[in-house]
Structure formats: structure tokens, C-alpha cells
Amino acid sequence: MTTRAPAPPTGQQLPVAPPPSRDHIPFVKKRKSKAPLLLIVPTLVILIAALGYPVGWQIYTSFQEFGLLQQFGADPEFVGLANYTTLLADPSFWVVLGRSLLFCLLAASITVLLGFAFAILMKRVGTLARTILQISMLLAWAMPMVAAMTVWVWLVDWRRGVLNWMLERLGFDAQGHNWLADPTTFFIIALVIVIWMSVPFVALSIYAGLTQISEEMLEAAAMDGATGIQRIRFIIMPLIAPVLSIVLLLQLIWDLRVFTQIKLLQDAGGVANETHLLGTYIYQMGVGSGDFGAASAVSILMLLITIGISWYYVRSLMKEEN
User: Fold this and answer.
1) Co-location of 182 and 112 in the same domain
2) Any idea what DSSP says for residue 78?
3) CA of 182: how far to CAs of 155, 198, 320, in Å?
4) In the prediction, which pLDDT does 222 show?
5) How far is it, in rounded angstroms, from Cα 259 to Cα 205?
6) Where in the sequence is the domain holding 164, given as residue range(s)?
7) Backbone torsions φ then ψ of 77, nearest 5 degrees
8) Are the CB atoms for 272 and 42 separated by under 8 Å?
9) Which contiguous run of DSSP H or E holds residue 65?
10) What's the mean pLDDT in 85-99?
């Protein structure tokens, strides 16, 4: 026969053992998994193999005199920083650099603003209108660049272009006007083309960020009296700031390296020496003039500018992760 322990008196609590002291708990060091490192190693190997040799060749060539003679078998001559000093002392380089930075800033900022406006529009309209708008943007973005440029060159052609034909119908004297011969109108057309090709990516990326914002939050702000502009400024923009940052950074990098649109417009009637950006300037020095040493020096300077533009964002991203 088993005996039960006597129950404690009514209103009296059983004693509770104190928690163990942290001083007596042994410290267990977590072993970091090596799986993430093993997963990124193949990607690093591919990147180094695909990009390491071209970048290394560019850096090495930028310190050499590599011209037409070297293309026919002559040994390149090491000249140190001569290519860089000659380049930095050339006024035409600074003109091209300033023109490229201005074009890059204008194209990227206008692209992000228009992309943000289209993303807000897609958020506000109905399903049918949003689907039509998204398909139209995808078609414009997915169109091959050379095919798109063929259409644009036909639109602005000074002999049979649609632009001059429309202006003539509106009463303007535009018959035979060459829009590509004037550097100002040349860059306006180039700016329109680059923005037209870039807005779909930015708009769809920002729209994807907008879909993650809670509708209840926006409705609560509207009930508290917040206007549409106030909701965009104080709620939507802070929440999608990471998306805006990355698309702006990508646009700055892409618009700084723009080449195909400018080259095809130059071939269609633009004055090359007055409409060069960094991409076409490098092409002209290398392929056109055969001075691959100087062209490599410009490429390295362009790479440094790109790293400088993206450094602030990368540094901010690393701080957030830490």
C-alpha cells in the first residue's frame, strides 16, 4: 500500500527551485555552416574566369603602347602611366566625360520618376488595364535593341521620317530637317530612346515592391486624413526605398555604359566627334584609331567611376546586413 505525500496547507505555495546561474552554464560555440561558402564558390569561379581575364588584360594593356604595329606582331612597349597622363591632359576626354555623366544622371533620374509613376498607375487601375499596360511594357522591354533602333531611326529620318511628316501636317516647316545632325536634338532623341527602353524594367520592379505594402495601412492613413501625395511621400516611398535604390543604381551604371543606341544614331546621320559618350569614345579610340592602350586606359577610368557610383549603395547595404 503506497502512501501519498501530505498536501500543502491551503494558500501556501510549494518552494520553487531558483534558476541555475549563468556562471555555471558552459559556453557552447556555434559552428558556422560551410554550406553558403560552398554554394557561392562555383559562382565566384565562373565570374573570375569570365571577367578576370578581360579586366586583367585591360589593366595590363593600359600601361602599354598597343597600337597598329602590335596588332601585326610587334612587341608592346611598357609606358607606365603615360596613357593616363595623356588622357587626363586631353580636353576632349573631359568634354566626353562631362557629357556622359550629365546624360547618365538625366536618363537615370527621369527613368526612375516615370517608372515610379507607371507603377503607381498600375496599382490604381483595374485588372484589365493593368494587364494591357504590363504586356505593352514587356513587349517594349523585350524587343531586340537593334530592331528597336531600326524603328527609331526610321521615325526620325530626315527624308522619310514619321516625325517630320507629323510636324508638316501640324503646320511646322520640318521638311528635310535632320534631327541627328544637331548635337542638342541628337541627345534629346537618344535620351528619349534610352528612357523608353528602360522604363518598363523600373516600373515593373517598383510595382513588385508596391504589392508588398499592406492595403490596410494605406486605408488607415486615408481615414486619418492623409492625402494621396502624403501617403506616397510618408508611407510608400520609405517602404520601397530599397527597391528605388537598387533600380536607380542599376540605371546609373547602365546609362553610363550606353553604347548601341548612340553608335547606331551616329551611323544614321549624327556627327560622331560631337556626340561621343564614353562607350563610343572608347570604341573610336580602340577600333577606329587603333590605339588600344589609350582605349584601355579610358575603360579602366570608366570602371573606377562605376565603382565610385555603386560604392555608396554597397556600403549602405553592408551596414544594414551587419
Assistant:
1) yes
2) E
3) 16, 24, 47
4) 85
5) 24
6) 103-279
7) -105, 130
8) no
9) strand 64-65
10) 92
Q: Are residues 315 and 215 in the same domain?
A: no
Residue 96 lies inside a defined structural domain of this protein = no
For 301, the 3-state DSSP assignment is helix
**Domain contains 30:** no
C-alpha cell at 58: 585591360
**Cα separation values, 231 from 121, 143, 216, 228, 234, Å:** 15, 35, 12, 5, 6
pLDDT digits (tens, 9 = 90+) for 180-230: 988 999 999 999 999 999 999 999 999 999 988 888 888 888 888 888 888
CA-nearest of 144, 160, 159, 164 to 264 is: 144
Grade residue 13 by pLDDT with cuts at 50, 70 and 90: low
Q: What is the pLDDT of residues 41-72, one digit of tens each?
A: 888 888 888 888 888 888 998 998 888 777 77
Q: Which three cell numbers stand for residue 93?
A: 576626354
pLDDT of residue 69: 78
DSSP label at 181? T
| 223 shares its domain with 174 | yes
Tell me the C-alpha distance between 161 and 3, whole Å. 107
Angstrom distance (rounded) from CA 151 to CA 156 = 9
User: How many helices (H) and strands (E) are present in the chain, helices listed first?
Assistant: 16, 2
Domain total in the chain? 2
Distance CA 43, CA 130 (A): 37
Closest CA to 157 of 269, 57, 61: 269
**Higher pLDDT, residue 114 or 6:** 114
Of the candidates 305, 213, 297, 208, the one whose C-alpha atom is nearest the C-alpha of residue 253 is 305
